[in-house]
Structure formats: structure tokens, C-alpha cells
Here is the input.
Amino acid sequence: MTSNCLKISDSALIYAKGRNIILWHVPQNAKYIYWHSKQNLPIVNLAQSRNRDYLMVSRIDYEAEEMLLTIMGKKMNILFEKKIKLNGMEIEGAIPISYAIESCFVILVQDKLYLIDCERLKINLITNHCDVFTTSTNSIIYYKFISDDKTRGYELIPSRNETQEIDRSIEQSLYDCPLTWLFTSRVNDENIPIYYVCGKAYRLEKHNWQEIPKIIIYQDKAISITVPIINGTFQYNWFSFSFLNDSDW
Here is the structure.
């Protein structure tokens, strides 16, 4: 049974289990069914908009070889539903990855990257050859295959419906390196795309990758979570945290 944590605080967490979205209230040590799917489909992914106006639930129908996307409002009312056909040969590993950006969701499943506009209740295919993606505060950064083994990067700004190619300075390294990691760093309420490639880290600045000396995963006025460096090498499978009063990057 798949479980996905959606939200956690000092008093509660929301997670998916089976057909249910469950709220666990810690002080009361009690569980509540937050939402129950009437269809016998397991929930495989959850995403919530930053303003908490929208919740996206992803379920998979293995018999029909489809993914069902459901967008709900604040009161758990269903605003929008869409079925997406999946490749049956690869359906067992079809676990979607999703993020929220402004009033939109972006979701990747089986190399297909989709943008869901919650205000217009529309879904658009960005690319059907996506390798990896992440988000900034107001844009989507993705790399798509241009050949069997090479990719090219793009930045999409949904609010302006603009797509621009990212500089190609690290493309050869992406091709040569077996270990890469594209993710979003959260620093002082800003989402910053970071690419870790062959021992080096890069931050996206105006469509260009700039090498940076340290990787900050999360930082606010109270704490900083970073990837530690030992003997000049990023320990990408570790993290360290520190308490602080002021923060600069």
C-alpha cells in the first residue's frame, strides 16, 4: 500500500494511504479520513498549492492503464478530473512526481511532463520526452531528450506562457557523468533550481548555470540545511543543519 506524506506540522500531518487521504492529529493521537475516493484506485501522489487553495490527487487504474488526476478546492470539492493514458509495458513503475507553482501543478509520469492550470481548469502537455524537472518560484526547469542519450534544458514561465532554452554549458557534463541531481532549494521563501553534476553544484541565474561553492537545501531565519563537504567533495547522500540568527547566500 502506497503512503505519501503531503503536509506536516508540529501538531498534524496529512498523508495518503490506499484510497484515503488521512489527517493524523498528534496531540489527540487521532486519525481522521480527510477525503475518501469512491473508486477503488490507490492514491500514488499528492500535491498542494502554496496558497493551499488547491489539492491534486493522482491515482492509477492498473487494469485500464490510466492515471486519474483530481483537482480539489479548499472544501475538498472536486473542481477538475482528467484521465491520462499510460504505457502498459511500464505501468508498474509509473509513480508520478509533482510540484506546485503559483496556481498550477506540474507532474511527470512516464517521460511525459504536464502542466495543470487550476484557475482555467486546463491540462497541457509540455513534452513527452522529459528526463528530469524541477521548479523555481515562478517557472519550471526541465530537460528533455533530443537523442537517445543527450538532453537539452528549458525554462517555462506559465504566467507568461514563455519557454526559453537554458545555456548549454553543462550539457557535456550531463552526458559524461553517471551521477546528476536536479532539485529545488528553498531559501528564505524563494525556490532556487540547483543542479549537482559530477561533484560540482550549479545555481540557475537568468537561464544560465552558475557554479556555487555550497549546496543549501533549505534555509530560513532560524535554520540552515546543507549538503556537507568532506575533503572538498559534496556528500550528496548526507545533510547537515545548523541554527542561525541571520542568513546570507
The two ends are 41 Å apart (CA to CA).
